Amino acid sequence: MADNPRKLNGYGDFVFSAHKLSSQKSKQFPKNMGARQFAKLRRHKQQDLEMGGIELKTDSLQRWAIYSKDTYVSGRIFLTREQKKAVAEGKKFSERAYADVWAKDAALVQRVRSFLGTNFYWHQRLAKSGADLEVIQTLQSMIRGESVVLIAEQSRTGGVRNDPAPKPKGLPSFREELMTKLGMSYDAATAYMIRYNEIVEKIHAMEARCANRAASPPADATSDLTKTATPLDDAQPFAYAPDAVSGDTEELAASTRNPDYAAKMLGFDRDTFGDMIHAMKAENRLRGDDNVIWHDNGDVSSKGLVIDNMYNY
Amino acid sequence: MNSQHLAHASFTISGDQVLPEFWTRYFDVVPDIAITKGDPITDPTGQGRILVRRTGVWGIRSKLMVSSSVLEPHLRYLINRLSLPKASLRELLCEKKAEMCFFCYWANYMGDRVPDVPDDIRAMIESLGGVIEIDEYR
To answer: What is the mean pLDDT of each run of 10 residues along chain A (313 residues)?
Structure first.
């Protein structure tokens, strides 16, 4: 699949946050900790620094770390099988956990506050002054929706370390190009990239369908098929039809009427998001076919008014 | 997929004049949804915006009480829980300018499921002035 169009990612998007986390977390070392234990923790925290994740909790068997989904998939088109397994394992672990028990662990809650406040700007109020239980429940909800992934890094059952691709040297990221040359906001650039990735996924799906139709496709035919797609790696920045960008791109790119796109924009799987939409519609007395617009901060609007926010469900 | 994720139903009474306390007393049931028009909405974006509910809604859900991938058990649960039909309900809905709805979640991502609403349930709900809405996801 090396010749296929590549999905976008925001290289280095959370690097700054890792540094912030490191300085915050250094205050958490207990003064009476042994040298060996201290070194072990410092090693873990150095890994966090490199990977943009943060330790959630560590027990005798494994260490659980949380990452924003963007950070975890950085540099990849899709999650590997091992990564998917690790994400599923983390979801199960989170689902089994009692929020009120985690909420009693002050250090854990503080780490979650730091993580949410740093990586998800719309949770800054929650991170700063939300109740402990609310903080934990929000984290669990985000893990359930996969906007946050929980990874066992010394798992007995196949948990894997993140392995981000190295940032290309000397070239600005696509996100940076969008922001500096087209003047998009960070969020608008993100939404633009999500849309691009939707198109890439459709191309992949079309290719899969073509491949299935062929009874026994010759190797060179498949090769020709994949060569028709332009790999992003080789694309020049701004080869992506800048003509399509108009003055209102930011507004358009940061919102959608399509629930499937909205689910991806907000980091939820389709089934979970469908359930959330239904609950939102019931509480706002919207009809099944009422059109609403989803925005990238979770807002739901109808007829120009914000009527709710999906993170309430 | 869990069957709860394929089908469930909510019973709602809605309208600008809906006061949840009234309907809680009327049905003698603790609601899952109790919203009065103008109630504040949590703003999780941290912007501190003042958002309010546009209309009143009182309701109960079958989701956590019934595990079935088809609608009938969910609808029958709601009907039994609310002791429907009630003779005075239709008149009361008119008086309070409220709408009654059985709002059905129907996951149909494969496109091969047909929602089931038994005729006797449909007739009873319609006789009370209510509607059944299928909220399909595919």
So the answer is: 44 29 35 48 46 75 83 68 85 87 90 88 86 91 88 58 44 68 72 73 69 52 42 39 39 74 89 93 88 92 92 92
**pLDDT digits over B4-62, tens only?**
579 999 999 999 999 999 999 999 999 999 999 999 999 998 888 999 999 999 999 99
Rounded to two decimals, the pTM is 0.48
- Other Cβ atoms within 10 Å of B16 Cβ, number: 13
Interface touch B109/A270, C-beta < 8 Å: yes
Cβ–Cβ below 8 Å for B135 and A288 = yes
ipTM above 0.90, yes or no: yes
Task: Classify A109 as helix, strand or coil.
Answer: helix
A288 → closest Cβ in B12, B14, B134: B134
Chain B residue set in contact with A, beta carbons under 8 Å: 1, 5, 10, 12, 14, 33, 35, 41-49, 51, 53-55, 57, 59, 61, 99, 101, 103, 105, 107, 109, 133-137
Q: What are the beta bridge partners of residue B100? A: B13
State how far the Cα of A188 lies from the Cα of A178, in Å rounded to an integer. Answer: 9
CA distance B130 to A201: 42
Numbered residues of chain A with Cβ closer than 8 Å to any chain B Cβ: 121-126, 259, 270-271, 274-275, 277-278, 281-285, 287-288, 297-299, 305-309, 311-312
Q: What is the pLDDT of residues B80-131, one digit of tens each?
A: 999 999 999 999 999 999 999 999 999 998 999 999 999 999 999 999 999 9
Of A1, A147, A145, residue with least CA distance to A73: A147
Q: Name the pairing type of β-strands B99-107 and B131-137.
A: parallel
Nearest residue of B to residue A308 by CA position?
Answer: B41
DSSP A29: S
Contacts 24+ apart (CB under 8 A), A235-243: A237/A171, A237/A172, A237/A174, A237/A177, A237/A181, A238/A177, A238/A181, A240/A196, A242/A182
Put simply, the answer to whether A274 touches B51 (Cβ < 8 Å) is no
